[in-house]
Structure formats: C-alpha cells, structure tokens
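Hi, here's the filled form for the chain we discussed.

Project: internal
Contact: R.S.
Residues: 421
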Amino acid sequence: MKTKVVVTGIGVISPIGNTVEEFKQSLIAGKSGIGKITQFDTTGFDVTIAGEVKDFDPSQWIDKKDYRKMARFTQFAVAAAAQALGQADLLEDAEEGRRRIKGDPNKAGVVLGNGIGGFDVVTESFRKLFDNGPKRMLPLTVPLMINNEAAGNVSMVFGLRGPAYTQVTACASGADALGQALDLIRSGRCDVVVSGGTEACITAFSIGGFQMLKALSTKRCDTPEKACRPFDADRDGFILGEGAGILVLETEEHAKARGATILAEFAGYGGSADAYHITAPDPSGEGGGTAMKYALADAGLKPEEVQYYNAHGTATEINDATETKMLKYAFGDHAYKLKVSSTKSMTGHCVAGGGGLEAIACILAIREGFFPPTINLETPDPACDLDYVPNKVQYGTVNAAASGNLGFGGHNGVVVFRKYN
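And the returned structure, exactly as it came back:
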C-alpha cells in the first residue's frame, strides 16, 4: 500500500500576486498580470510584453545577507518556500536571521524544478566580460546562475538536510520535481519535502531567443492584458512569465502526528517522453496523454472522478490543439465533461515556475470550489472543442484536479490532487 502524501503549506510569487491569497483572488477575478517589460530596454524587439512579478521585496521573507547572494529565480523560490513552511507551521523562531525547520532536518528534503537558471546573472556577466574583460565579471557569477542554487539555498536558509535536488526538464520541470518529491516521501527517505518550481528569465537574451524561435506572441503588444489567448483561434504564441510556486509535502502520518492542517492529498504523478521533436509536442497527443494516464493510475482514480484539469495551455498553435487530443486520449468521453482552463492566460508562461503555480491553482480549486477561467477566449478554435471555462470563473465541487506541463525535448509531467478526507 502506497504511503499517503499530503500538502500542508503553499507559497506563491507570481505576476498576479505575491501571496496565496492575492493569487487566488486574481484567479477568481480573471486578472491579467501581463504588461510592458520593465526589466530591460525593449527597443528593437518585436516582443515588448511579459508576465513580470511586481512589487517583489525579498526582505519580507529573506535576510538581507542571504538574498544579496541569490539570483532572482532563487529569491522567488526561497520567498515562496518561507510562505509555505510558515503556513505548514514547520519553522522554529528565527536564529541568526534564519528560521530553521522543526523536527528532524535529516528527514526533510527539497526538490525544485528550474528550466533555465539565472539568466539575469548570465546576461550581466557577459556584458561585463565583453565590455571590460573577465576581471570585471560578477565574482559570484557561477554560483548565482546555476540551476541547482534555488534548491541549495532553500536547504541552507531553512536547514533542510535531506536530499536537495533540482529537476531540469524545461517547462515540465515544476511538475516533474513534484513527482520526484512524491517518490522521495513514498520511499521513506523523507518525512517532509519542499517542492515546486521557480523561474526568472525575463531578460533580453531569453526574450530574444524565444522571439527567434517564433514562439512568442507579437500581435497585441499594445494591449498586453489581451495578448495571451489559449485555445483561441486568434492565438499567436505564448507570453513569457516568471515566479515560483512551492508546496510543503508530508506523509499523512507525519502531518497528523503534529496536528497540521492538511490542504489536499497529493494523489499521483505521471511522466513520459514524446521521443518526437526538440520543441514541438507529438501531434498525436499520445505522449502527454500517456503521462495523464499514468498519473490517474498512480492516484487510483478513474477519469470520471476528476472534475478539473489545469492545462499547459501555452497559446501556441500546436500546443493547444495537441493538448486537447491528449485529454481525449487519457480521459475518453469524460474529456468533454471536464472543466479545463489555462491560468497562463493570466500569469504568462512561467516555465518551471508554472508547474508549481498551476499545482497550487488545483489545490485552491479543490478547497474553494471554483474553476479558474481561461481569459481572452473569444473565438474558440474548432480543433479545441472542450470546456475551457472561457473568460469568467465558474463554481462547483472539485474532488480531484490534475495539472499537466509539457517541456521542450518532449518532456511530459502530470500531477493529481484530491480533496483530503
């Protein structure tokens, strides 16, 4: 019998709010977090909009001596982890500016997804290298930029001495990290794991790179709140976002023994690879659909027992039609009864951060009884013929919810949560 794994804390840094409550209210209101890019000069770029995190002050959650040695993506992760661990009531009182985890630190781990690392650091260090030579580069360039530093800093700041891993599977990184964390707890190696995804890659280098791939939306840079249009016939690409979504996972036994409030059960995970193309999903939908089937089987759920699916829903021409096929492949006729939505229509595509944020959207849907909308869905694509909760929130009972993320390279990760009884 599988060990039951539960969620006892969640934390959010996002384009639509830097607390869970702000994030929830924005989802319900259908609020867009997409606007003009402020982090660099967009002169000469076709793409001038993104889903930036706003009013982020790391000192609210992180001691100054720590956050000054962190790249932006790491700051997001540590801030969201502080929120999640605080909600879970797993932090001791501050000692030397750091709050340490309660209980056995050797049985507390961290698994974070990150797709790209510290692109802000890379960009600045290359500028200094090309302008003034290597001796003017940032001294901490390497430890700030590498993907694993978010997980490393979460472990150091909160004293987590169990395994500290980083999952790098492009846009599926956050979901895959949660799946790895689930396995760590089920195996008995950890009682508690801090997991999710983080990303901060709104830089000239990344926007330029995605622009050259023709992956980003360029049609509505003058009306950014209307630009991200998943499943709409007039979609023309994704909007890059940033942020972090972090969950505290525990065994049910561990959570109950300390009297924790349980938010939801983390019921299952499924992963697969398309083995098809470096950027495009398998158009048959079988790759991602297989991950969905695996996740349902791992959760012990029948398709008809799931009420909500948070879609990868990037608003690219191929993704949205293919993901619709994936849902039909995995859920059969029940796909037409599912409520499906893309919260990326509000946050933009937060890469690895999306996996954590969208998992949290599922947990909020279960706890609060609502289906987040897909905003800007005005002219449905005939190839996308499911119920995508267009434009306005809907309410109803959600006993189980799933979230899927698909990454360049053909990576597919799906997580399933259900109401805790």
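Let me know if anything looks off before we file it.
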